[in-house]
Amino acid sequence: MAKRTEPAAPTEIILESISDGVFTVDLDWRITSFNRAAEEITGISRDEAMGRLCSEVFRASLCEGACALRRTMEDGVPVVNQPCFIVDGEGRRIPISISTALLRTASGEVVGGAETFRDLTVVEELRRELEGRFQIGDLISRSVSMRRLFELVPALAESDCTVLIEGETGTGKELLARAIHGAGPRRLRPFVAVNCAAIPETLLEAELFGVRAGAFTGADRDRAGRFGAAEGGTMLLDEIGELSPAMQVKLLRVLQERAYQPLGGAVAVPADVRVIAATNQDLRRLVRDGLFREDLFYRINVVRLETPPLRRRREDIPLLADHFVTALNCRQGRRVTGVSAEAMALLMAHDWPGNVRELENALEHAFVVCRGQRIEPRHLPEPLSGYQARPKDFAGKIREAGSEAILDALRRNHNNRQAAARDLGMHRATFFRKVKELGLVLPASDGRRRPRATTVARQRRQ
Amino acid sequence: MCLIILKINIFTVKPWCGIELARCAGMMGQECFAVTVWGGRVSPVLDVSTRAILLTVEDGHLIHRVEVKLPEPATAKLAALVDHGVRTLLCGAVSRTLAQQAASFGLQLVPFLAGDMNDVIAGHMAGRLRSPEFAMPGCRGRWRGRGRGPCRRRGHDSGKESNHAQRGWKGSTR
Nearest residue on chain B to A55, judged by CA atoms? Predict the structure, then answer.
């Protein structure tokens, strides 16, 4: 007689058909059920998950410090839509939202918990598109100057040329270098960043090129340097202007010959490494002052990129603030909804000498101080909280940023209104409406005739 | 395995996070490694780990062990560990970005480990971290012929665990 299989329970059918991941745990935090969607989102099969500790299966950013289910099991209050991320087996951070519930017997005794989670990857991507923001790697912006950088990244990623990135501290030079690495054929190989200013001169050569056993007292075994660690991948030489003359010579030879010599080694080692250099100094000035070798400068200055300071792209401040608030919520299991208008006015008024890094630190500070759901001016660190910005300044700063973008686009397109609108990614009618709203006076010439050489020269001098 | 902890004051001492911490001087024959921990087990996600145990081994014997609080953000954790002489870090799941940053610091990761922290430490000292007992769920492909992604570990010889990030990451980007 053929064996009859038992029909699945209705709840099991429902759980297997939904797109949200669901798992349950017992009082020892071991997985007791794991639905199909949970398998798909985490990449872990039910067989491997069952009986294992939920933190080792789920791998969420909240597990260690702010586990939502633990909170629910302690206070009996369900958590709803708590954002966080999980790390899958391929090292991808997957944004999710979590909701929790208690499992009770008929008599009301708690026997475990249930957690539901939703993959927010598509939602995040759509949100970015709707906000009109550009993102490449971890760089986020809606400013025109950054968009130009983003447009260059794919082409730079495909080539192997040396790139020089110049920009103030905290403007995202390393993030840009990582984005170039991550968009190219070397993305599966290492990305190694070296801060040339942080390593003592006496150790830098060994650190970069490695050491052979016996090179000096205490060197009892071969040690690979950063070039060895970056083999096949990309190396970022940050603060390259800080290299000593002797190291500049050695680096130049490596770039010319595509090989390096470990300390104490007799044989050169071929280097299949793409080099990106970064600096917050003016290398041309250093060359003029005799502090940086001209031949090395021209070797690294094949393509030059500049990361603009945050004060020149103030329109990104609200976007970045929102991004950091989301990331901090995820990391700390908080539900801060955002920055108040008054606090945002203070953020917009500040000059940010430390640029994006300083903004991130300010918001981290605010998260420590803020116990509520909204960041207010008093939560911000000094000197931000000392500004006397009034709410209307926020609108004023937004207007100023918009005016700058429009005038900038007109200059780039020789006052051609249509070309400027296209450059800004807006319809011509929208462009004129914004000009009227902002009260801008457009130049008399409309740029439809080709400018004469003298006109171009005059514009350049301006 | 019974861990013998000997306090030998041969290191320079450097305050960190308010705790006097012996920095591994990396002398000849010594290995300095660390394991991120939580609740007596390997911490599940390195990106958000808050504590680690730093260990120094000489000639196969554990000569120093101390538990420390890790700073924020994630890159500061790596920098602090490297600054204190750690060359190998045993940990749980790690994001791609952080693994690459670890490589840039010259820090060798042995990621996607799970288990009791003392068992994992003993496993590392005995060169047994390849064993499936130390693998996180979903990371046993090597033994089931189904592995994918970098949580597959290709083998461990004591002191020569391959760097996760150096092997590269497989699979399509999301």
Answer: B44
Among partner residues B28, B93, B140, which is closest to A59 by beta-carbon distance?
Answer: B93
Q: What does the angle CA A223 – CA B58 – CA B130 come to, to the nearest 5 degrees?
A: 70
Q: What ipTM describes this predicted complex?
A: 0.73
Q: Does B3 touch chain A (CB under 8 A)?
A: no
Q: CA-CA distance, A293 to A297, in Å (whole number)?
A: 6
What is the rounded average pLDDT of the residues B154-167? 34
Residue A287 contacts B, CB cutoff 8 Å: no
Question: How many cross-chain Cβ pairs, A to B, lie less than 8 Å apart?
Answer: 129
Nearest Cα to Cα of residue A442 among A405, A390, A391, A407? A407
Of the residues B48, B139, B140, B163, the best mutation for testing chain A's interface (the one with the most A CB atoms within 10 Å of its CB) is B48
Mean pLDDT of the region A86-93: 90
Q: b/e per residue, B100-114, with b = 16+ CB within 10 A?
A: bbbbbbbbbbbbbbb
Contacts of B114 in chain A (CB under 8 A): 52-53, 56
Cα-Cα end-to-end distance for chain A: 94
Q: What is the pTM of this model?
A: 0.60
Nearest to A440 by CA among A431, A452, A449: A431
pLDDT in tens, A60-83: 999 988 899 999 988 889 999 998
